[in-house]
Design brief:
Blueprint (H helix, E strand, L loop, with lengths): L1 H17 L2 H6 L3 E2 L2 E2 L4 H13 L4 E4 L2 H12 L11 E5 L3 E11 L4 H20 L2 E13 L16
Parallel strand pairs: 5-6
Antiparallel strand pairs: 1-2, 3-5, 4-5
Organism: Nocardioides cavernae
Protein name: Putative alkaline shock family protein YloU
Pfam families: Asp23
């Protein structure tokens, strides 16, 4: 019986350091009292909000998703789709996130991607207790602020 205890004790100690501190404080998803399931949409909204918090992210989504989002925002009473441009895979203990972003011009894309990854991993792990295995980021476009002022009429070549 003591051999069994010794065999299980190192395993428990080995898994404890690998588990993030945020997961331990958030609690376990499976316990003697029941199981907690987290839907894909929950993780997708958390990741979308966390990505938008980073300075240098203009928008999320590819061209078609942004066009649909722009139409949706024009409808009275509609809300912004917080999971636009976010795809996730959620398991019982882990999650993987794919983000499609539009970066602002002048921002270092590698630094932007690193900041997004840190924020998304921190938010998802803290709020859900799931381990984030990867955050893949695709930059679809670079946003340029309009150089034309609305006050100035456009110059024409002919009259």
């Amino acid at each position: 019986m003591t051999e069994t205890t010794k065999a299980t004790t190192p395993t428990a100690k080995a898994t404890t350091p690998a588990t993030p501190a945020t997961t331990a404080s958030a609690g376990v998803l499976v316990s003697e009292q029941g199981k907690t399931s987290i839907a894909d949409t929950v993780v997708s909204k958390i990741a979308g909000i966390a990505a938008r918090e980073i300075s240098g992210v203009h928008d999320l989504g590819g061209g078609a998703a942004r066009a649909v989002g722009a139409l949706r925002e024009r409808i009275p009473g509609s809300r912004t789709n917080l999971s636009q441009g976010v795809a996730v895979e959620v398991g019982e203990h882990q999650a993987a996130v794919d983000l499609d972003i539009v970066a602002e011009y002048g921002v270092a894309i590698a630094d932007l991607a690193a900041a997004i990854r840190r924020n998304v991993v921190d938010a998802v792990e803290r709020m859900t207790g799931l381990e984030v295995t990867e955050v893949n980021i695709t930059v679809h476009d670079v946003f340029l602020e309009s150089e034309e002022s609305d006050d100035e009429p456009a110059t024409t070549r002919v009259q």
